[in-house]
Amino acid sequence: MNMKTLKKYTLVLLVSAVTLFSCEKDYDRVFSETAETRLQKVLDEYNTQLQDAPYGWKASLITGSGIEYFYYLDFAADGRVNMLSDFNANTAGTIQSATWELKALQTATLSFPTYSYIHLPADPKGEVNGGFDGEGRLSDFEFAFARATADSILLEGLQRGSHMTLVQATAEEQDLVLGGRIKDILAYGLSGDGLQLTLSGGRTITFALNADEKKLTAQYISDDGTKVEVTPLSYSVSMQGILLNTPIHAYGQTIQELLWDASGKRYYVTIGGTSVPIIQNPDLYFFRPAIPIQDVLGADFFAVLVPYGSVNKPIKGQSPLFTELYQAAAAELQTWEVPIELYDMFVAFDINTNTMYLVVRVVQSNTLFTAQYNYHYTLSGEGVYTFGPGTAVDDNAKALAATMSNIFVYINGDSFKAEFVGGTEALTGGFFSQEHPEFSFSGILTN
Questions:
Q1: pLDDT at position 42, please?
Q2: Which DSSP category does 119 fall into?
Q3: Tell me: the pLDDT tens digits for 85-137?
Q4: What is the count of structural domains for the chain?
Q5: Disulfide check for 140: which of 64, 157, 221, 445 has CB 3.0–4.6 Å away?
Q6: What is the C-alpha separation between 242 and 334, in angstroms, rounded?
Q7: Do 407 and 325 meet the contact criterion of CB atoms below 8 Å apart?
Q8: Do residue 319 and residue 202 come from a single domain?
């Protein structure tokens, strides 16, 4: 019988007692202890349960924004808790000692008073966790006890709608997590090399892991062979590897997990009872569907966008030389009397006039400005674009021309093979110089 029902039942008994024994001034108390005493007993029970887990706890924290984080927690009697987390590769491999306490608020509450790995998803600075400024990932560091069994506890966040489930770890699981299992799983996916699964017939699926968003993006050729499918999926980390919330359906196969091969230090999937490895490939992978990229540029897709953030975090297909020149241009713009931020850049195609529009967008004094350069191009049947000399078509373009010239010199007059670049988080097109193989740039295909 829950507390709400018990209180209602008690009221009925008291009314009956007053009716039958109105002359009696004293009657037995329903509870022999005060509410404070009963709550303290509950706190003592939770305190004992948290500390008595011999091998610590596995915890799943699901934030108010729906992102799931893995934690390992080991509570000690001195008010310290050792923890690991899959928040990033560092938190997965470096044990942190923080503080914890049980408090009697409106209900029994588990609190983490000092800033710790628990606080990272809740941090209001978006740069910390990839969330929005002012709210982070909508998570908590104070939790009410909602339900408990002998080996598990369900906690509800007090402010942001998150919840955390604790399950007692086994001795083997403790050894694995303290031995770096979670760090190894994350590090493999975040190495920077492309992740590729090759099935029979040379059919390939590429993967891109985003730890901030807890998303795994798979790319593969569609069933009809005409296009590149891009499938971003939420995931969670476990001792076994990467568990996808929704399975991948590609090439007649269904993939729900990227399992961890501890001896080979890599992911694998099980296909028809056989383990197939997912390899790290430092080389770029190009998808070549039946409808090539040159047939969709200017038709299905208006432009290829070099996204904001490429200055510090280039995407696949942007060569080291391009990145170096792009960063140099960004740094020079910051030295102007009124500093300018290099925001992004895109190339758009007008297939009717064979004109490529190269547009650089910058931010100055919180205002976005565009600078446009026009190039005439020719296109071969093999998907090779040759760009004629560019022309600045506005005053902003003329003002930025000198700063961007070290990039433009590789575009003017060069020939570029266009390709679908795999292993990214969005459908990506790349342009690879035929005259200067060290120079290439890429971006997200956009309408």
A1: 85
A2: G
A3: 999 989 999 999 999 999 887 789 999 999 999 999 999 999 999 899 999 99
A4: 3
A5: 157
A6: 41
A7: yes
A8: no
Closest by Cα among 373, 349, 374, 345 to 361: 345
CB 420 within 8 A of CB 287: yes
Q: Residue 130 corresponds to which tokens in the numbers above?
A: 């990839």
Structure tokens at 349: 């195609």
Three-state DSSP class for 193?
coil
CB 254 within 8 A of CB 343: no
CATH number of the domain within which 249 lies:
2.40.128
Quickly list DSSP for 34-76: -HHHHHHHHHHHHHHHHHH-TT-EEEEEE-TTS-EEEEEEEE-
- CA triple 157-163-165, angle to 5 deg: 130
Does a structural domain hold residue 343? yes
Question: Which of these three, 149, 179, 209, is where a domain ends?
Answer: 179
Half-sphere exposure of 290 (CA within 13 A, CB side): 5
**pLDDT reported for residue 201:** 87
CA distances from 244 to 66, 237, 254, 259, 280 (A): 14, 9, 11, 11, 19
Q: Which amino acid, one-letter code, is at 31? A: F
| Distance (Å, whole) CA 91 – CA 114 | 16
3-state secondary structure of 177: helix
Q: Which residues pair with 281 in a beta bridge?
A: 194
Largest CA distance in the chain: 107
- C-beta separation of 228 from 170 below 8 A: no
Residue 20 lies in a domain: no
CA distance 390 to 387: 8
Interaxial angle between packed helices 181-189 and 171-178, expressed in degrees from 0 to 180 and rounded to the nearest 10:
50
Q: Which of 112, 147, 179 is the last residue of a domain?
A: 179
Same domain, yes or no: 378 and 237: no
Instruction: With beta carbons less than 8 A apart as the criterion, state whether 49 and 153 touch.
Output: yes
Instruction: Look up residue 70 and give its two tokens.
Output: 């893995």
> What's the domain range around 236?
193-283
If one counts every other C-beta atom within 10 angstroms of the C-beta of residue 312, the result is 8
Tell me the sheet residues that pair with 243: 236, 257
DSSP 67-114: -EEEEEEEE-TTSEEEEEESSSHHHHHS-EEEE-EEEESSSEEEE--S
Q: Looking at this protein, which amino acid is placed at residue 377?
A: Y
